[in-house]
User: Fold these one by one.
Assistant:
Number 1:
Amino acid sequence: MAIVGLNHFNIVAPTQLMARVRDFYVDVLGLAEGYRPDFGIPGYWLYAGEKALVHLVDGGTTGSTSGAASGTGTGHLDHIAFTATDLDGTESCLKARGWEYKKIEYPDFHLTQLFTHDPIGLGVEMNFAT
């Protein structure tokens, strides 16, 4: 067996935060809401191009994994990292929404990183080639 890439990651959010989490990934990070099969649980698939990269599932009032997918999530995910474009536009979007973030530049690596958190506290890293 060989791993060849990331297929998707699944976020379980409390019902009351579902729209905010979706809006963060769509409006701030630029993913697009797209087709999602009916699994009998409310949710969204958020796409980067043709790829449903983020699966967002309604976790009820607590946001627990019970009833979602396998129900075996550990809650130990620290952050997710995206390869991104348009550093200036992304910073402008974050600033316009009052979203806190940290910027680190690595000139030797031709890399700039932005770090923030989504509405449920999951760390989000964006990597920009510079």
Note: The chain has one domain: 9-63+79-129.
Number 2:
Amino acid sequence: MQILCLGEVLVDMLGQYVEQNGEHIKIFRPFAGGAPANVAVAVSKLGGSSALISKVGNDSFGKMLVSTLKSYEVDTRFIATSEGKTALAFVDLDESGERTFDFYVENAAHKDITDADVSGVPLTSQTLVHLCSGSFSTPQLRASSASLIQRAKSCDTLNCMDINYRPGFWQNPEQAPEIIDNAARKMDIIKASQEEMDALYGTDAGHIVQQWQDAGVSLILLTDGAQPVSYLSATSSGKFDVPATTVKDTTAAGDAFIGGLLYQLSTSLASGVQLKEFLSKSENIHTLLNVATRCGAIAVSRFGAFDALPSQADINNIS
């Protein structure tokens, strides 16, 4: 099964303090990133098959990103160039490794993704489409994403959405809760952080999650930093502990988590078992979360995005 990711690939400019001429100064180091791209790399580094649908600028950053994705054996056939510039995300880390973002996405290349860019991408029952809420943040992106999801449904292709809410991506952030809710109801799998749900829906977050399940979402996952992951399926619910780790940088934490989960899911479904049947056993959900939480724990112990994502050897070595 191939994991087909849709959305932004960008440059994370990671802020770090260094000693220079006796002074403590901040520098920004460029890392390849972007949530959908991170997931594609996460799957590939674990030994899975992945591809990315995106656009980059005809600039040095864009060339670097495509070259880097190829080096991780991500299928880049569906990455085109645009007149827009490759997006930048300046990332500041506090002492606990938590992030704040400043996005430079005005006229960004990935915002030029159109229906024509997604219409020719082959979809089968052995494909799983993954995207984030940023793929619904502008009218044009909403149209192209909705087109892909609709076609995926007709091809028996599974759909996964990481909420990954970034207000800086949205032209009108006040519209985000309703737009994200409507998109989420069409998914098979949803992953969100508790922080994102609180920001989007406040005290209604629990009600929204229940509505997603009522709409037919097969698996809903809520992460909460070092706290246990909450899961909800049609037949079971519960919490799953995350491994203890030393946090350096949370930039790729959620992407490593969902990438690990999708890799393990693609392996588990390779025999032909259907998603709902597989998820009917709580031990199968625990198997997915065992890999996902290990991947997340390893990623936060390292700096950057692509470089921080684990290999099979890495997850086998974590207790």
Note: The chain is about 35% helix and 25% strand.
